Amino acid sequence: MDKPPPPKPPLLPLLCSQLSLQHRVNEVTLTSAFLSWRDVETRPKRTSGSIYGPLKAAGSHYVPVCEIISVQETEEDCPNTDVGKWQKVPHNPAESNQHAFTVSYVERTPKHRWRCSEVTLHCTDRTLCLQWVQAIREQLSLLTIRPKRLLVYINPYGGKHRGKRIYEQKVAPIFSRASISTDVIVTERANHARDHLKTEADLKKYDGLVCVGGDGMFSEIMHGLISRTQRDSGVDQDRSDETLIPCGLRIGIIPAGSTDCVCYATVGSNDPVTSALHIVVGDSQPMDVCSIHHNNTFLRYSVSLLGYGFYGDVLTDSERKRWMGPARYDISGVKTFLSHRYYEGTISFLPADENVGTPRDKLQCRAGCNICRLPTADKQVYKDKESGSDTETDGAWQVIRGKFLAINAACMSCACPRSPKGLAPSAHLADGTADLILVRKCTRFDFLRHLLRHTNKDDQFDHPFVEVYRVRQFRFTPRYEDGDSELELREAGGSGHARFFSQICREHPACTCSLAHSSWNCDGEILPHAAIQVRVHCQLIKLFARGIEEQSVFEEPYALGAM
Ligand SMILES: CCCCCCCCCCCCC/C=C/[C@@H](O)[C@H](COP(=O)(O)O)NC(C)=O
Ligand SMILES: Nc1ncnc2c1ncn2[C@@H]1O[C@H](COP(=O)(O)OP(=O)(O)O)[C@@H](O)[C@H]1O
Ligand SMILES: [Ca+2]
After folding, report:
1. What is the DSSP string of 368-425?
2. Which residue intervals define the domain DAGKc in the entry (predicted)?
3. Which residues in the chain land under pLDDT 50?
């Protein structure tokens, strides 16, 4: 949350020269933290006592070394065969035979988008030019968090089927400029990436994974990596009380899907170039993951939306409309809204510690979030267990029964272009909790008001039929469960009528009659069971991201690099 400190004065310049930039003399300085250049032909007036002077002063630029993408010696005055264009011939004839180098660096633009900007600096002789290139490269080589070798998976059918083109045109050139080597796999079927990661991939060869696709594709890669990590460490993921081993490799997401909420909620935009640059600079954002079990069988992991009722039904309907691309969610959304089905069941949950806040906090999770840096609340559960007190029976669990239009859980905001603040606007990426949102039966009109508030600034939780809880674990049992809760059916006074229909549904699994059940939408996959147990695993995975930056971060002085 903290505003980054202003750049420190360059106490120990590693290199300082007068170089020419667009035919003007600039004093160029490299320190271990910044590359800066200042036009010395127009000396700006200082307006305050600060040694930085007015940082907006014309001609002063600071680029943090950690945001430099690459440095290259520039070939002057020759046709650039790569792009088939001639470079601009300098006006000043004296400059035409000079040596130059080009530094590419991150430039922030509105809406959290990053772009690759360049500055070309001319030197009087080649030795000086090489000295500069070498000095900058040396500083870059000290940034050991940057990945050098990546394994890339592309889903050619995600979103609008543009994954391959997006990767080739926008991302691969950035990786090659940053000297990142890649192995690229274009998937041939669903679960290809997951299975490859689970069993075949030689993960030791890589510093990270890249997923080109949507939330479904990300989910595949996450499943492959988590399962592989547990198997390699001898951890049984079927046991719902296991402490899972965090994954070592970071995952980068190049958005090319329908919803792209994991990317949007961790980076602030769904822009392929921005994501590629976050990978290049080696960002790292830990992220919570929910594990979902049915009795003692592992079903799936979830990071974004785990939704029963409305979002489950939207997904079930939209799967038949995949050919429509992203628009399928709008059509199925309207259809599901009109059907206005509600489902009965019981939710039990273990509330999170108070110090992590509540789902209605005004405070949102942003880059460097203080709540996510707290010692993890998650660990408390295991401590309680070890000391013999069973948290499950000591009264901490709360139980809610009712008729629900929607039951949603999200361990992050789920912000996406459709809903910029997300399903759970105050959920934290890495605090070990999920926000549980219960929407009880209400009128169609009220439900519509609630849904529409996801798309504007109004508070979607400010309705009498909506309840929200911040939880570490929860369970759901539908009132009329298949197979194992005949007893509950009888206890609950289940009418012969209900039993009759639940019987029909059991015998005709394809029947979409939803008297008793909806399905869970788990990050865009349909789960086979309605009765589930869910637990949040704090910071189980890491992404090449940094969380959403506060707007002030890309105000001065950090934007001074803009030319
Ligand atoms: C009638 C008006 C309705 C407006 C409701 C707007 C609410 C939007 C909240 C969206 C939350 C999305 C959470 C992300 C879910 C993804 O995991 C999943 C799968 O995404 P994918 O297809 O793989 O990109 N997408 C959906 C829509 O279920
Ligand atoms: N080559 C492939 N052919 C068919 N399906 C695939 C392929 N590769 C991945 N998938 C599956 O496609 C599904 C949707 O992919 P995703 O990239 O999330 O796009 P969208 O956001 O449009 O749903 C994922 O669940 C993934 O498992
Ligand atoms: Ca969380």
Report:
1. T-TTTTSPPTHHHHHHHHHTT--TTTTT--EEEEEEEEEEEEESS---BTTBTT-SST
2. 145-296
3. 1, 47-56, 78-97, 377-393, 484-514, 553-563
Is 215 among the residues known to form the active site? yes
Domains of the chain: 15-143 (2.30.29.30), 149-479+516-543 (2.60.200.40)
Closest to 150 measured CA to CA, from 190, 193, 181? 181
Q: How far is CA 488 from the centre of its chain?
A: 40
Q: Residue 60: its pLDDT value, please?
A: 87
Instruction: Give the tokens for residue 162.
Output: 């543009």
pTM of this prediction exceeds 0.90: no
Whether complex ipTM tops 0.90: yes
Counting atoms of ligand 1 from 1, which one is nearest the CA of 333? 1
Using DSSP, state whether 247 is helix, strand or coil.
coil
- Give the pLDDT score at 554: 47
How far, rounded to the nearest angstrom, does the alpha carbon of residue 439 sit from its chain's CA centroid? 26
How many angstroms separate the CA atoms of 549 and 540, rounded?
A: 22
How far is ligand 3, taken at its centre, from the CA of residue 400, in Å?
22
- Please tell me which residue in 207, 215, 283, 317 is annotated as part of the active site: 215
Are 484 and 352 contacting, i.e. CB atoms less than 8 angstroms apart?
no
Ligand nearest to the CA of 223: 2
What are the beta bridge partners of residue 29?
A: 16, 36
Inter-axis angle of helices 310-319 and 328-339, nearest 10: 130
SS3 316: helix
Per DSSP bridges, beta strands 434-440 and 398-410 are antiparallel
